[in-house]
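Input (Sigma-70 family RNA polymerase sigma factor):
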Amino acid sequence: MTNEELAARAKTGDRDALAQLWEQNRGVLASIFRELARKAGARMAAMGVTWEDVEQSFFLAVALAVRLYEPERGVLFASFLKYPVRQVFFDMVGWRTERQKHDPLGKSVSLDEPVRGEDGSETARGELVPDPTDAYEDAEEQFYIEQLHAALDKCLDALEQEQAAAIRYRYYDGLTLAEAGDRLGCNAEYARKLEYKGLRRLRSPQNIRRLEQYREQIVSEGAYHGTGWAAWNSGGSVEERTIIRLEGKGLL
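Output:
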């Protein structure tokens, strides 16, 4: 069952669905919380918060995410999850509490207040306020993309030249088998065999270790949805899903 289906059930009070949602997103939760903990290590130490404390908050973050998640917006649950995780983490280390002490909320305008546009439509004020962290997150994402792209290139460079070329033509350039064959000087069937052999070799232990550090991000963004990391090791279409996903993000 997908995250979105489980979230919809959990939203109706289905505790089994909530538990399953927590279980199948533990890797994603660990990845997001770990990154926050890395950046806030000094704050955690000052507040006496340990990683064990953080792990115990995983379920709380999922429960909060279910309460706030709106499936009709079309956002993947795993992508939405990082916002409740941050809220839970900031509460844990006392950042939200301190901010509340100093912010004059009684005099502030609600971010939920509707703002009417020229066309008569209404938008919540909070959606119009720029997030000062966006630039940092964009830079962080770009750095991640560059690292992952470099790792993928290393994996492809380890293949036979024709196999690597077939994969690049197919997934980087979006060519058909016939078009890839023309570039390689062969027919479509031989291009398919080169692609297949290349994808199989990408599942080598060395490549798995090289890409392991990126698996949480790939999982959280859906490239492995319905397959699991083990599928990379045992076969299937994970490689194709991953490359297509990266292509859609502008990595390739």
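The mean pLDDT is 73.
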